[in-house]
Amino acid sequence: MPKELCRLTKPMVAMVAACGIAALLGLQSPPVAAAEPTPGITENEIVLGTSTALSGSNAATGTIGKAQKAYYDFVNAEHGGVKMGDGKTRKIKFVMYDDALEPARALQNARRLVEQDKVFAIVGSTGTSACLAARDYLNQRKVPQAFLSTGAPMWGSDVAKYPWTFGIWPAYNTEAAIYARYIKEQVPNAKIALMGDDSGGPLFTNAFVEAAKKEGLNIVIKEAYSNSDPTIDAKIDRLAASGADVFVDATTTKFTIQGLKRMAAIKWQPVHIIWGVSNSIGAVLKVAGEEASKGVLSGQWYKDASSSAYANDPGVKQFSEKVVQYGSGIDPHDSNAEMGWIAAEAVVKTLEQMKSPTREAFMEAARNMKDQSVSLLLDGVKMTMGANDGYLIESLQVARFDGQNYVPVGGLVSYEGKTPVSH
Amino acid sequence: MTKALQAIRAGSDQPSRSAAFRHFGILALLAFAIALPAIASPYTLFQLAGVMAFAVAALGLNVITGYTGQVSLAHNAFFAVGAYIGAMSTAYLGAGPLGSVVIAAVVSFAAGFVAGIPAQRLRGLYLALVTLAIAVSVTPMIKQFEAYTGGVVGFRVDQPAPPAWLPISQDSWIYYLVLLFAAIAFFMTYNLLSGSVGRSFVGTKEAELAAGSLGIDVARSKVMAFAYGSMLAGIGGALANFSIGYIAPDSFSLMLSIGFLAAAVVGGINTIWGAIIAGIFLQYVPSFASDISQALSGAIYGGILIICVIVMPKGILGSLPRLIANFQTIRRESRAEATKALNKVAN
User: Fold this and answer.
1) Which of A235, B75, B111, B341 has the fewest Cβ atoms within 10 Å of its own Cβ atom?
2) Cα angle vertex A277, ends A273, A281, to 5°?
3) Which residue of A has its CA nearest to B44?
4) What span, in angstroms and rounded, lies between the C-alpha atoms of A164 and A155?
5) In terms of DSSP H, where are the helices of A27-164?
6) pLDDT at B54 over 90
7) Per-residue pLDDT, B15
């Protein structure tokens, strides 16, 4: 090493070492849990946070977050806030960050919400792997990760390990079991074709394969596609060629539309069951065309605002009016807007039942929900959890699309407290 | 041609004042980084651990693209290889933080070596296309081997915990571990690139024929640069596990590769230390853009990128010498003018 550099370097190395020692001496010791008041809640305000996709290819999901914000703004403006179980009325401050559904950013957002914004709870976040990335951290910190807008089975099955986490959507394993039961009862000797995408799909298709085995059903063909595929026409052709007479369809919206059109073109007319992710009248069935989508079956748990059957329903009317008023640019026919509204209303319902202003009380109120409802849920669909039941909504109404609306087929099917654990 | 010769001839490094300043700067930065946990919040430390993991991976891209002139879109794939191999070696083999990073480095080096073989013959667009194929195949591959990778649901990685005798928080511990590995990676790369290997890389980029005629094994340089750069990506991926503690295929989309490329260009793709700026860019700019406007975050991200490229075409660090030189020229000129004016007054 040249002399000049040596002269400069030696004091510098000493400086680095000194800094290291100083850092070690001055380091903060691990945080000590003191009896501090719960963060994010004061006499007149409660701070909630969410992480969702506002950019990237999944940005449409972000409407779930925006609709939640619209609901809290509506409650703050028209009811002066939420009257909580301790008798105090608090305004809701809602902080929303973009994670583009990337797990690493979702964890970063969770930490930012908890450590910097000091939120009381994280609610209504989207994306299964994004929520999974934040789950350990939030449970370690004992921060509620509540009313997650995803249907992943583990929210309800891992309660012992992750008591601070739960979802709101009917889980894919509940839905799969209900369809398997329906097929068993309605289509004797069914030959089933099953298709799902390779991201959220396997959670559903795996659960369906298990449920089908339990019911003794015969799956003759199973296909998967990737979201980057340009078309699934060839796969639909293969399903049709298999001679299947029931098609359980766990494709995502764009591909569901493609599939419906292809099925009409090749005149394949099985009993067609579409999972809840892609059963929107406005975003899927009407786009594919009335002729192509007539007769489609799907499980319903909320009132589709696109359906004329609910044109006079007070809950749907209020939603359609207020979500536009308080949420700029939200389309009330977008089912994601309804998902957000439902989650936010469920959050408010929980806050109303909280006995004290603590995170523990929030979780207690949520975990002890019995037969609760919010305005957009179908009549008879209730929110219930319990000591051994980590799933909030476990009933579906199987319905057939008649070209305009969903018409119920049979009664509401409830798996309350009986959702099969999916592996 | 002349540039290549210059690069090759530059072997007789003169110890200059600027080199001394650079060493001073680097050591000062290191000293600051070591002292930081005493004052920074846990959240900041978590973010900085992310910055360093990204910086190590971006450094790999600087080696492949900046130094050797090969366009790689497959950086997400090698980042993913490192992350998954690191995580799996912890989960299945019980490897500690050091072990997981070493195993990840070896495997991603091997993967980069294999992927680098076509790079010997392919140039420009064709090479970009081959690496694009690797980039888009990584997510389906992860999903395919569900039994080991956890498929779409991903899997949880145990985060390194500080030893019991050390009274520091887990965030500080992770920060120090990542800092240690990042410092080693940068030191290694600095040494590698300032020697004959680095000159052969640059020679290969600037003029393949000339470099070849001077006895440089061009094909070997390309493959080694690819393998070494991929190894750094893999180390970055394994380091990212420390602070995130969870991996899923959604983390490694093609967008990550594009992000790496953009950030590396902004930092200064022909430099070593520009990778640190790339890491800062990757960690902070997406959320910064989203904080300005949630609806327009993509456009703002793109806007920042365009401004950086127009104002500083060689990247922030690459343009720094010119900016300083310009500033010095202006100062010198104004001083000369002032002297002239004074002389005039005196006369």
Assistant:
1) B341
2) 75
3) A112
4) 10
5) 62-79, 103-111, 128-141, 154-157
6) yes
7) 52
Contact (CB<8Å) A56/B255: yes
- Assign A82 to helix, strand or coil: strand
Q: Which fold has domain A173-300+402-414?
A: Rossmann fold (3.40.50)
Q: Which residues pair with A223 in a beta bridge?
A: A195
Distance CA(A19)–CA(B30), nearest Å, equals 9
Residue of B nearest to A226 (CA): B140
Closest CA to A153 of A133, A177, A134, A137: A177
Burial class of residue A364 (count of CB atoms within 10 Å of its CB; 0-12, 13-18, 19+)? middle
Residue A114 burial (C-beta neighbours within 10 Å; 0-12, 13-18, 19+)? buried
| CATH domain B2-297 topology | ABC transporter involved in vitamin B12 uptake, BtuC (1.10.3470)
The answer as to CATH 3.40.190.10 being correct for domain A45-170+308-392 is no
* Contact: B153, A20; criterion CB under 8 Å: no
CA dihedral B138, B140, B142, B143 (to 10 degrees): 170
B151–A202 CB contact, under 8 Å:
yes
How much is the pLDDT for A219?
A: 95
- The dihedral built from the CA positions of residue A304, A368, A131 and A49, taken in this order, carries a sign that is positive
Identify the residue with better confidence: A246 or B12. A246
Alpha-carbon gap, residue B43 to B316, rounded angstroms: 26
Integer Cα distance of B65 and A38 in angstroms: 50
Tell me the pLDDT tens digit for each residue of B164-213: 898 889 999 999 999 999 999 999 999 999 988 999 999 988 888 898 89
Whether A2 sits inside 8 A of B37 (CB atoms) is no
Every domain range in chain A assigned CATH 3.40.50.2300: 45-170+308-392, 173-300+402-414
Q: Which of B36, B37, B152 sits opposite A199 (nearest CB)?
A: B152
Cα distance between residue B251 and residue B233, in whole Å: 14
Whether A8 and B143 lie within 8 Å, measured CB to CB: no
Q: Assign residue A118 a region: left if phi > 0, alpha if psi is -120 to 50, beta otherwise?
A: left
Are B86 and B101 in contact, with CB atoms under 8 Å apart?
A: yes
Contact A149, A120 (CB under 8 A): no
- Nearest chain A CA: its distance from B206 CA (Å): 29
Helix locations, chain B, DSSP H? 2-9, 17-35, 42-61, 75-93, 97-116, 124-144, 146-149, 170-194, 196-206, 208-213, 218-244, 254-267, 274-292, 297-311, 315-346
Q: Above 90 in pLDDT, residue B11? A: no
Global pTM reads 0.86
A414 close to A379: Cβ distance less than 8 angstroms: no
Ordered by start, the domain boundaries in chain B are 2-297, 312-347
Where residue B229 falls among pLDDT bands split at 50, 70, 90?
Answer: very high
Torsion of CA A325, A326, A327, A329, to 10 degrees: 30
Please state the rounded mean pLDDT for residues B324-335. Answer: 82
Q: Could you tell me which chain A residue has the CA closest to the CA of B35?
A: A23
Assigned token pair, B80: 């993913």
Structure tokens at A21: 């020692």
User: Residue B113: how many CA atoms within 13 Å on its side-chain side?
Assistant: 8
Which backbone phi and psi does A247 adopt, to 5 degrees?
A: -120, 110
Per-residue confidence (pLDDT) for residue A4, from 0 to 100: 46
> Which CA distances in Å does B112 have to A290, B71, B191?
51, 14, 21
The parts of chain A modelled with pLDDT lower than 50 are 1-8, 28-33
CA dist A131 and A147 (Å) reads 11
Query: Å from B193 to nearest chain A CA?
Result: 17
| Closest CB to A12 among B27, B38, B245 | B27
